[in-house]
């Protein structure tokens, strides 16, 4: 079962084609003509059979022609019949290449494919290309050259355009997948396959929309954890949202949220078709994530300065040579060369000077990548300089990019760079932007590795009390909480708030203000008023009781006049926040379709919408994510020592963000929230005002994740952690795997005997390849689970110091099958822990998780010559049967 479930679609050994008869060209559909030519233009590595559904014969005869993949390119009225035939032939997958098939017929085709157990790509797509298999099952043009870049596109026209561009730029592909608007196999499933595809080293995605945020984020995170992913998203929506009832909801648009989602998934977003090509060039050159420091080698000051300006514009750093590198390089360069910032070789630069400078930059620890810019100069052959770069590139491990300016005189040089797989650009800005994409991938990988639990390690919040407040408001058929109710919710999660008391008369306002102590603030309390200052419903710095009484009367009369239909509960009285040099920030929540809740952070106060400062992150948060969220805001620049004020207490601000994350995870009823302003200074933070919008919790899916079904990223499931005793003394912890377990998992695999490794992986590999290691450690807890048994070992070093280290001594895992009712398991235990009950405990634990998830059956393949594993399976009550596809294996299964 090591094959991916989409293997019949993307790596078929036999293909049957329903595209009409080639000898009757007049009767062929337009896509069918193109498909016939595409399939016959090269020899497919497997078996290819053409069938006509109108030929005489019985279904029984057709059923003898078994195939992995059925390709259908017929008129709309014949597609369903062909799909039925493919089902009778036991095809594992079907591809419908067509256009103009409506949603009704698309739904019918999905039902047929589901009934017959086929994975359906299409209808209304241009098909797929798998160059390594010599398979061009598409209407997107000639077969692309073989390479390591995968292209997934939701636009047929864009697919064809990229392939046309790739032919002239020596870019090859492992896979090309065109997805239609109604396809059954969606973008998430394709990404899931490519994440596990050894031929694919990087992925380019053109995206117009997604149906399920959870499955998309799961697949994208899995893919981006294993290989670089670049996304071009079309269909940006305007940021304004007239229906929003909080500032955050007004400011944040769905495109901003998509940015945050991609960043958290570890992928890189580009903004234009040109930038997508630039990224594809870099990915095709197999460049991997690096830092932000780009060294610029140039023979002209102007182009170099343009490049340096763009480095600053997109928040990269200019890579500068160390003092030692400059001292060694300077004597070898022309007299007018400058090395202070740019590596400006001057107009006298030769090919040899370029070679020396690029070599020095590539060796320098202060440089992460190199951009070589060449402007045409008389007496210097651009092609010779390009050849020097091609020689240097063979020894380089860092990205090398080039910009050969000009046109007619540099065409041969660009050909040399292309052949050497050095990405070449026509402008300095484009080259710097392309490096920026590689650097962004490196940064986003840090965000991807974060898998926080729903609750932080801070004091436990009063979740039940918060739910009671929400339920009472919903019972009144209200959705907007009053300031009192909003602050009660914040206080339940230990977010500091100003003490607030509701006064229902002018006399009460005077008494409450006197008891609280002056100065106080008065604010109108109404469920129908979103922004109090818009109706002059806020009065600050009230200094005595008479003023409090008069202010109450005037405020209620004024609000009633300005907004006659509003219900007025009274006026809240609260102490003025005393932080004279505090900064005003706003923490908010918006709910996006389809990504769900998103936490925002930015400048606060009354000018919030004018300043429009919003950074955002998908929950759950941990301290690392909270710190990065603050750093991305513009107001972050004022939080350090600023204009004579001390730096704010950043730890407290991070804790408030963690508390908001807890609220979002535990209260699915939250829709919008403004905590504005939060006044923060060196001593702490306090929420002065808050407004929360709620609604009934979204319908949750069945299974254990239902509590967090409203989140696009499932939190770390800390509830599955357990401590168990070891026979003979000691104990070990069974817990869900984390991304930072990669090194310990690799150590476990390396420590296994060759026999144990073969029993687990059916391979003689001595260690897990990086792609597989990434795939095993960063998992989507919604569709799979891996439990590790972790042993703490105490050892004395030569000096007698006791050090405690952790070691993984066993792993059990399951992954949900495509039917969503059963799962496939795997188990491995360290050789020195065999026979100690560890395997049995890990299997019981993983079965408990699968049972809680709502799965009905767990199954797996065990080598027939693995007696210890088969004995364990019998002891656990698994049924053991022969596996018809391979006699070397036994199929074991257990009802949950």
Task: Explain what this protein looks like in three dimensions.
- With 896 residues, this protein is α/β, with parallel strands linked by helices.
- Among the domains are: 290-433, Rossmann fold, CATH 3.40.50.261; 463-575, Dna Ligase, domain 1 (2-Layer Sandwich); 718-895, Gcn5-related N-acetyltransferase (GNAT) (Aminopeptidase, 3-Layer(aba) Sandwich), CATH 3.40.630.30.
- Helices cover 36% and strands 23% of the residues.
- The protein is built from 29 helices and 36 strands.
- An eight-stranded mixed beta sheet has the order 29-30-31-32-33-34-36-35, sandwiched between helices. A seven-stranded mixed beta sheet has the order 7-6-9-8-10-11-12, sandwiched between helices. Strands 13, 14, 15, 16, 17 and 18 form a six-stranded parallel beta sheet that branches.
- Helix 10 (254-265) packs across helix 17 (428-448), helix 11 (273-284) crosses helix 17 and helix 15 (382-393) runs parallel beside helix 16.
- The chain is globular, with a radius of gyration of 32 Å.
- The two termini are 20 Å apart.
């Amino acid at each position: 079962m090591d094959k991916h479930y989409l293997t019949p679609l993307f790596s078929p050994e036999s293909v049957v084609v329903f595209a009409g008869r080639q000898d009757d060209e007049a009767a062929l559909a337009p896509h069918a003509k193109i498909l016939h030519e595409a399939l016959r233009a090269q020899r497919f590595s497997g078996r290819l059979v053409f069938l006509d559904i109108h030929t005489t014969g019985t279904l029984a005869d057709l059923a003898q022609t078994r195939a992995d993949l059925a390709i259908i390119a017929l008129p709309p009225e014949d597609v369903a019949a062909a799909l039925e035939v493919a089902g009778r032939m036991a095809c594992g997958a079907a591809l419908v290449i067509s256009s103009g098939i409506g949603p009704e017929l698309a739904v019918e085709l999905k039902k047929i494919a589901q009934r017959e157990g086929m994975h359906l790509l299409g209808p209304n797509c241009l098909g797929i290309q798998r160059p390594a298999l010599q398979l061009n099952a598409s209407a997107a043009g000639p077969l692309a050259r073989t390479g390591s870049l995968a292209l997934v596109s939701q636009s047929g026209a864009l697919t064809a355009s990229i392939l046309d561009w790739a032919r002239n730029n020596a870019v090859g592909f492992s896979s090309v997948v065109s997805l239609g608007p109604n396809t059954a196999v969606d973008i998430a499933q394709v990404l899931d396959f490519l994440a596990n595809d050894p031929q694919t080293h990087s992925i380019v995605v053109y995206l117009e929309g997604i149906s399920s945020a959870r499955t998309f984020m799961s697949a994208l995170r899995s893919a981006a954890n294993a290989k670089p992913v670049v996304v071009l998203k079309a269909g940006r929506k305007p940021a304004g949202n007239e229906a929003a009832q909080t500032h955050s909801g007004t400011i944040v648009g769905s495109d901003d949220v998509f940015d945050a989602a991609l960043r958290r998934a570890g992928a890189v977003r580009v903004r234009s078709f040109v930038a997508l090509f630039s990224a594809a060039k870099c990915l095709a050159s197999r460049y991997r994530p690096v830092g932000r420091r780009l060294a610029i080698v140039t023979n002209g000051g102007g182009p170099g300065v343009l490049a340096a300006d763009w480095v600053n514009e997109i928040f990269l750093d200019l890579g500068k040579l160390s003092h030692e590198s400059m001292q060694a390089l300077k004597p070898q360069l022309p007299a007018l060369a400058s090395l202070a910032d740019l590596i400006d070789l001057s107009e006298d630069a030769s090919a040899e000077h370029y070679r020396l400078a690029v070599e020095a930059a590539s060796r320098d620890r202060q440089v992460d990548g190199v951009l070589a810019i060449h402007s045409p100069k008389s007496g210097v052959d651009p092609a010779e300089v390009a050849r020097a770069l091609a020689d240097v590139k063979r020894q380089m491990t860092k990205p090398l990019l080039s910009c050969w300016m000009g046109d007619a005189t540099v065409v041969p040089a660009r050909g040399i760079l292309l052949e050497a797989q050095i990405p070449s650009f026509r402008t300095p800005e484009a080259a710097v932007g392309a490096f920026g994409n590689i650097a962004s991938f490196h940064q986003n990988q840090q965000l991807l590795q974060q898998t926080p639990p729903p609750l932080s390690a801070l004091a436990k919040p009063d979740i039940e009390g918060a739910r009671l407040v929400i339920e009472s408001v919903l019972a009144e058929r209200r959705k907007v909480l009053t300031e009192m109710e909003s602050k009660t919710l914040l206080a339940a999660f230990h977010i500091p708030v100003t003490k607030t008391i509701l006064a229902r008369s002018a006399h009460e306002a005077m008494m409450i203000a006197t008891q609280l102590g002056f100065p106080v603030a008065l604010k109108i309390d109404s469920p129908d008023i979103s922004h109090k200052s818009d109706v002059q419903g806020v009065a600050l710095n009230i200094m005595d009781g008479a003023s409090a009484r008069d202010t109450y009367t005037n405020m209620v009369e004024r609000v009633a006049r300005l907004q006659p239909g509003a219900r007025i509960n009274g006026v809240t009285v609260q102490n003025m926040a005393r932080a004279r040099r505090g900064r005003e920030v706003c923490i908010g929540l918006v709910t996006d379709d389809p990504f769900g809740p998103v936490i925002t952070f930015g400048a606060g106060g009354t000018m919030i919408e004018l300043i429009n400062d919003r950074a955002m992150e998908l929950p759950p948060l941990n301290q690392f994510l909270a710190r990065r969220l603050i750093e991305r805001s513009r107001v972050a620049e004022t939080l350090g020592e600023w204009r004579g004020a001390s730096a704010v207490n950043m730890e407290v601000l991070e804790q408030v963000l963690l508390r908001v994350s807890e609220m979002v995870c535990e209260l699915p009823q939250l829709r919008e929230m403004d905590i504005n302003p939060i006044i923060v200074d060196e001593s702490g933070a306090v929420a002065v005002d808050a407004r929360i919008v709620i609604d009934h919790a979204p319908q949750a899916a069945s299974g254990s994740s239902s509590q967090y079904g409203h989140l696009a990223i499932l939190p770390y499931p800390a509830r599955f952690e357990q401590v168990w005793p070891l026979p003979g003394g000691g104990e070990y912890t069974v817990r869900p795997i984390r991304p930072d377990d990669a090194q310990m998992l690799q150590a476990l695999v390396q420590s296994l005997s060759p026999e144990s490794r073969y029993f687990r992986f059916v391979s003689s590999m001595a260690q897990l390849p990086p792609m597989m290691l990434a795939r095993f450690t960063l998992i989507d807890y919604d569709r799979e689970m891996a439990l590790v048994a972790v042993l703490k070992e105490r050892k004395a070093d030569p000096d007698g110091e006791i050090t405690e280290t952790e070691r993984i001594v066993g792993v059990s895992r399951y992954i949900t099958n495509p039917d969503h009712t059963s799962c496939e398991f795997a188990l491995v235990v360290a050789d020195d822990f065999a026979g100690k009950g560890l395997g049995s405990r890990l299997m019981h634990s993983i079965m408990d998780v699968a049972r809680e998830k709502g799965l009905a059956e767990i199954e797996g393949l065990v080598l027939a010559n693995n007696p210890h594993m088969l004995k364990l399976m019998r002891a656990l009550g698994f049924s053991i049967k022969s596996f018809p596809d391979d006699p070397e294996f036994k199929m074991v299964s257990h009802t949950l």
